């Protein structure tokens, strides 16, 4: 049996899907991976193919890449394709469109990049792309309620099912040494009595770090903001922090591989994201016992029970976000209770719980070639 995993970048597969590649390999499958980016660190993959995807969906280069992928699929005669990330998922399914005896295709949606509040033109274009390739989607797996309801409404797959993410690998979150909190704060210049907010994410328009810089202006000077990550808007956010006079209270450490000490060094987690699938940064913070203040968008509302396991605020409303953070500032008891409940609420999303659910869905599609 022969399997192809596709995604926009190899790093996506490396960060989230290695246990599944190894699971297939252990069952005798030949596992190939085709993505953009650097194909390093993929144990479980027998062979890899580089696909030069560009982020802009309409780029002519992506349509050329789809033709290249179609040739690979025809040559290798895969039994099953599992595709991830919106860009790669569209062009993977486009590549098999009209193919005789095509392989079965599973599309795992990590969060549609639109919702009901997305501008109509963008929403309609992205939805049209999903509808165009629905017939080539034998099984569609989604991770939050909004995406599930949309997929059913528009019949975006021959079969549609929901999964609780792909599983949080808590081995990466081993309890840091007791001195880790003090050591991190000393390294970052954060006073021991300060209140530290943590938001690890790619710097992008969707992640909206700039909102949190506005939030910080509404909060006492004892509140600090930790923003691990890199991305296209990192320099812009640094410029905002300087313009707002916040450089002493905002930490930009860049990409962080080992996040456990950062969760230990924080007092609460925050998110200003525009939309999500089922975000790892929120699940990780909850598992580590941090109270969370997050925008009330899809993905967040699937993880957080407002007032119990975290606090929600309207997306983009800096004053409302600051108000929710003040609730935590004023009540150590609330922080403790919320953090304890958050940890318990995160347990169903751990890899140990989720892995058998996802592999059961994969097994349901083992494969019969279809015309």
Topology of this structure?
Blueprint: E1 2-9, H1 10-16, H2 18-26, E2 30-36, E3 47-50, H3 60-76, E4 80-84, H4 86-96, E5 104-108, H5 120-132, E6 139-142, H6 145-153, E7 160-162, H7 180-188, E8 195-198, H8 209-217, E9 223-226, H9 234-243, E10 250-251, H10 260-265, E11 268-271, H11 280-287, E12 292-295, H12 300-303, E13 311-313, H13 318-329, H14 332-346, H15 351-364
Helix pairs in contact: 3-4, 8-13, 11-14
What's this model, at a glance?
This protein is α/β, with parallel strands linked by helices and 371 residues long.
Q: How would you describe this protein?
A:
The protein has 371 residues and is α/β, with parallel strands linked by helices. Helix content is 41%, strand content 15%. It is built from 15 helices and 13 strands. A 7-stranded parallel sheet has the order 3-2-1-4-5-6-7. Strands 10-9-8-11-12-13 form a 6-stranded parallel sheet, with helices on both faces. It is globular, with a radius of gyration of 21 Å. The model has no long low-confidence stretch (mean pLDDT 95).
Write out the strand line-up for the largest beta sheet, numbering strands in chain order.
3-2-1-4-5-6-7
Report the principal-axis shape.
Answer: globular
Q: Write the H/E string, N to C.
A: EHHEEHEHEHEHEHEHEHEHEHEHEHHH
Q: Which residues form runs of ≥5 with pLDDT under 50?
A: none
- Estimate the mean pLDDT confidence: 95
Q: Helix segment count?
A: 15
Main beta sheet: strand number and arrangement?
7 strands, parallel
């Amino acid at each position: 049996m022969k399997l192809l995993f596709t995604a926009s970048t190899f790093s996506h597969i490396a960060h989230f899907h290695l246990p599944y590649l190894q699971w297939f390999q252990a069952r005798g499958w030949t596992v190939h991976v085709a993505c953009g980016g650097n194909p390093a660190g993929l144990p479980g993959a027998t062979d890899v193919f580089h696909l030069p995807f560009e982020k802009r969906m309409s780029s002519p280069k992506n349509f050329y890449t789809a033709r290249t992928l179609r040739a690979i699929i025809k040559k290798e005669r895969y039994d099953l394709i599992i595709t991830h990330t919106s860009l790669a998922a569209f062009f993977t399914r486009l590549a098999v469109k009209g193919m005789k005896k095509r392989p079965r295709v599973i599309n795992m949606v990590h969060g549609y990049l639109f919702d009901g509040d997305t501008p109509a033109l963008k929403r309609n274009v992205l939805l049209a792309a999903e509808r165009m390739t629905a017939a080539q989607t034998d099984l569609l797996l989604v991770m939050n309620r909004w995406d599930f309801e949309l997929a059913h409404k528009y019949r975006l797959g021959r079969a549609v099912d929901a999964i609780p993410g792909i599983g949080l690998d808590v081995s990466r979150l081993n309890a840091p040494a007791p001195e880790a909190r003090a050591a991190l704060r000393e390294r970052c210049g954060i006073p021991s009595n300060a209140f530290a907010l943590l938001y690890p994410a790619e710097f992008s328009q969707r992640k909206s770090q700039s909102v949190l810089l506005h939030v910080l202006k509404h909060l006492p000077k004892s509140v600090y903001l930790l923003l691990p990550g890199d991305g296209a808007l990192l320099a812009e956010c640094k410029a905002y922090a300087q313009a707002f006079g916040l450089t002493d209270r905002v930490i930009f450490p860049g990409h962080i591989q080992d996040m456990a000490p950062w969760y230990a060094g924080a007092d609460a987690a925050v998110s200003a994201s525009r939309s999500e699938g089922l975000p790892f940064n929120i699940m990780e913070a909850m598992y580590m016992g941090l109270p969370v203040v997050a925008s009330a968008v899809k993905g967040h509302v699937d993880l957080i029970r407002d007032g119990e396991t975290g606090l929600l605020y309207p997306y983009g409303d800096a004053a409302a976000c600051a108000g929710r953070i003040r609730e935590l500032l004023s009540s150590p008891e609330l922080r403790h209770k919320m953090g304890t409940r958050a940890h318990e609420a995160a347990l169903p999303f751990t890899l140990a719980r989720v892995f058998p659910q996802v592999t059961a869905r994969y097994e349901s599609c083992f494969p019969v070639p279809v015309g």
